[in-house]
Amino acid sequence: MRKRRTRTWLLALATLGGAGAGTAHAEMYRCQQADGGVVFQAAPCSLAELATPEPPRPAAPPAAAKVDPPPAPKPAAVPAPVRPAVAERSITTPSPVTVPASGADDDGFVKPTKRKRDILELTAQFERCRADVPGFAEKSAVIYAAWKQRHRAVLTEYSQLLSAKVRAGRRGEMTLPLNLCTDAWLAEIEPLSRLPDPRFQTVEKTWQVFLGALMTGDRETLMNCLAGKAEARWKDRAQRLTDEDMRRIGGNIRGLKVQWGDDYEKEGLVADNDNRVTGIAFRNVNEEWKIMELGSATTVALPVTPATPAAAQAAPATAAAPAASAAAPAAAVVVPVAVPVSAPAAAPASAPAKAE
C-alpha cells in the first residue's frame, strides 16, 4: 500500500513536472532587438522585433583616384611679324612711282618708236639704192646729205640696227627692192629731209598760224597749214574769197579743243560764235602738224546758254554785227571739219566733231 502510494506520488510529480516544463517552455520567446541583442520573453515578439535588420554590408574599398596625364606643353607662340608703319601721305600729293623705261631690254637696248622705225627703214632703202644702183649716189648726194643731217640723232642712236638692216637687205633677207630707186621716190622723200618749220611744231601752233592767215588774208601761209583733203578743198576757195570774207570767217571761230591723238594724228573740235561745233583732224608730216580734214561734215549746234549780266551789257556793242554779215553773206561761212568715225559725237559741248 505504501509502495503504491509512493509510486502514485512520483507519477503525479512527474506528470506535473512535465506539464510545468512544457508550459514554461511554451511561454518563452526569443526576440532579436534592433541593437543586435537577444531578449527572452513570455509574450510573442513584435513585428518590429521579428524583422531582423539586414546586417550592414561591408563598405566597398575606395576607388583609386583617377590621375589625369600631365597636359602636353603648348608650342611657343611665334610673334606675328611687325609691319613697318606706312607714312601717311597727302591726298593731293601722290607718292612717287618708279616706272621702268618702256621697251628697254637687259642690255639697255630701247625699242624704237614707230616714227624712228620709219626713219630707219627709209635710210636702209636709201643706203641700198646708193650702193647697188649705178648713178643713184651722185644724183641723190644733196638730198642724202640733208637727210643725214635732219635725222642725225635717230641714225646715231640706232647705227648698229641700221647696219644690220642694210646687210640683211643686200643678202635678200629683208625687203629693200631696187625698183624703188627712182627719181619719183627721191622726190617723194625730199620733203622729209628738210628741217621742220617751228611754226607748225604743235597742233595749237598750226591752228594759230591758220587763224592768223585768215585774219590777214595771207593765202600762201593759209595753204601751208593744210594738207591732204583740206588742202584740195581750200585751194580754189581761198582764191575766190576776198580778204574781208577771210577775216569774217576767222573772226567767227571761237576756239579749238583737241580731243585725242598720238604722235602721228590728232582730232579735235572747233566752235564758232553761233555755238556750232565742227570737227578737225591734224597729221604729223615730217614733224610738222598739218590740217588734213577741214570741211567734210555738217556742223552741230551747241545748246544755248543763258545770257549773263555781263553779256547783256555787251549786247548793244555788238548789235551792228548782223547788218555787217548781211552785207556779205558769202563771208558768214563757218570753217567745218570732217568728224572722224572714232570721235564721240554724243556731247557736242565737250566732244566736238569735224567742221566744213
Give a written overview of the molecule.
This protein is α+β, with helices and mostly antiparallel strands and 356 residues long. Among the domains are: 114-193; 199-303 and 325-331, Nuclear Transport Factor 2, Chain: A (Roll), CATH 3.10.450. Helices cover 40% and strands 12% of the residues. The strands form 2 sheets. Strands 3, 4, 5, 6 and 7 form a 5-stranded antiparallel β-sheet that branches. Strands 1-2 form a two-stranded antiparallel ribbon. Strand 3 and strand 4 form a beta hairpin. Helix 3 packs across helix 7 (159-170). The longest helix has 25 residues, at 2-26. It is rod-shaped. The chain starts with a helix and ends in a 29-residue tail after the last helix. Mean pLDDT is 73; it is low at 297-356.
Helix content: 40-55%
- CATH T-level topology of the domain at 199-303 and 325-331: Nuclear Transport Factor 2, Chain: A
Rg (CA only) = 62 Å
H/E order of the elements? HEEHHHHHHHHHHHEEEEEHH
CATH architecture assignment of the domain at 199-303 and 325-331? Roll
Q: Write down the oligomeric state.
A: single chain
Largest sheet: 5 strands, antiparallel
Pick out the low-confidence regions.
Answer: 297-356
Given helix and strand content, the structural type is: alpha+beta
Number of E strands: 7
Q: What's the shape?
A: rod-shaped
